[in-house]
Amino acid sequence: MTGKYFFSETDIKSAWEQVLTAFWQRYPNPYSTHVLTEDVLYREVTSDNLLLSRRLFTKTNRLPRWAERVFPGNLSRSVYIIEDSVVDLGNRSLTTLTWNVNHAKLMRVVERCVFAGEQDRPLWTRLTREAWISSGVFGLSRPIQEFGLARFKSNQLKAMKGLEHALSNLQKASAACHGESAERNKNLNSASKTQKPQQYI
């Protein structure tokens, strides 16, 4: 695929199982207000124990000022995104492939992410992200691709902050659950100590 290419690798300081849970709970979050809707279109567990999912997202599609002068004013300000994902519990990996359904001639963005658990570092997850940005607009493909790459970089930073937000919420919920459990056990132990022994005749 011609156009712009993006590649990055990120180490996430959380176990893969936590990252997987947070991935499904990313939206809504304060860093991704451009994500308007999220719908599951398809989900299946295969015979070899893979979880396949397809989701549809609606996101805002604000054009740069120079593009607003070039393209018609009735151009949709929303973009529809398809996300296919494969969860492989055996290999502790989550692979996603996303692409835009509409505005594909104006700009097509295809993104592939792999969240992989690391055997030698069980409390870390490696995220490998790739993206391909292309445009079919004659004479303007280069500036459109440059803009697309810049916007993608900005959005992927927001996506990471959104994932970190979801992970933080999970950790807070887990801590609160453990705290309630400890308090419950403490109260039970206290009650058992103060209770008088039952007498039998």
TrEMBL record:
Stretch list, region Disordered: 178-201
PROSITE patterns on file: PRELI_MSF1 (PS50904)
Pfam family, one: PRELI
Compositional bias of kind Polar residues: 187-201
Coiled-coil region: none
Domain of life of the source: Eukaryota
Limits of the PRELI/MSF1 domain: 3-175
Protein name, UniProt field: PRELI/MSF1 domain-containing protein
